[in-house]
Amino acid sequence: MAPDAGTKKVGLIVGSLREHSFNRIIAAAIPELEESISFEPISIADLPLYNEDLDHGDGPEPVQRYREAIKRVDGIIIVSPEYNSGIPGVLKNALDWASTPSKTAALRKKPVGLVGATPGVKGTIQSQQQIRQTLEAIQAYVLPFQKMYISQVMDKVDVERRVLTDETTRKYLKRYVQQFILWIDQVHTLD
């Protein structure tokens, strides 16, 4: 299913299942920053662990919903933490489900942006490198040259109200989203 020709629609995938995760707060702030497009949260919570024995036909029902949600949007922004210096297992599992079947994979040739927040001082550098490596293997079009690492996130959000409060971070995140929107348009020239 191809995206609509009208208003761009971007899917938001959070690489954490925790209800009050910092990355979920960041993902919730993105639609407030750019109102020219619509955003659709795409949940990965119900996906079974990837098992090739289950991956035949359209796959299990939660996988079908997930893949169709990705196909409906013009691009995907993944907002993910870093666990043990790497990609969260639940996100890797979701990317694996979106990588098959290889010729019609939901993420194949899909524009993807990466954002990550962590309480640490180094941001989500290692996690994003691993996510990028997986996306490139899937043949997704990852936004090049732009990076969005949010370090010491606990000082930049109000956890009780679940909002991004740091204006500098909001400014950089808005700029990143705007660059991603331009990337969606540029990807069409790559085919």
From TrEMBL:
InterPro entries from the UniProt entry: Flavoprotein-like_sf (IPR029039), FMN_Rdtase-like_dom (IPR005025), NAD(P)H-dep_reductase (IPR050712)
Annotated NADPH-dependent FMN reductase-like domain residues: 9-152
N-terminal signal peptide: none
GO (cellular component) term, any one: cytosol
GO molecular function, one term: FMN binding
Family: Belongs to the azoreductase type 2 family.
Name of the protein in question: NAD(P)H-dependent oxidoreductase
Source species: Paenibacillus sacheonensis
Lineage, opening ranks: Bacteria, Bacillati, Bacillota, Bacilli, Bacillales
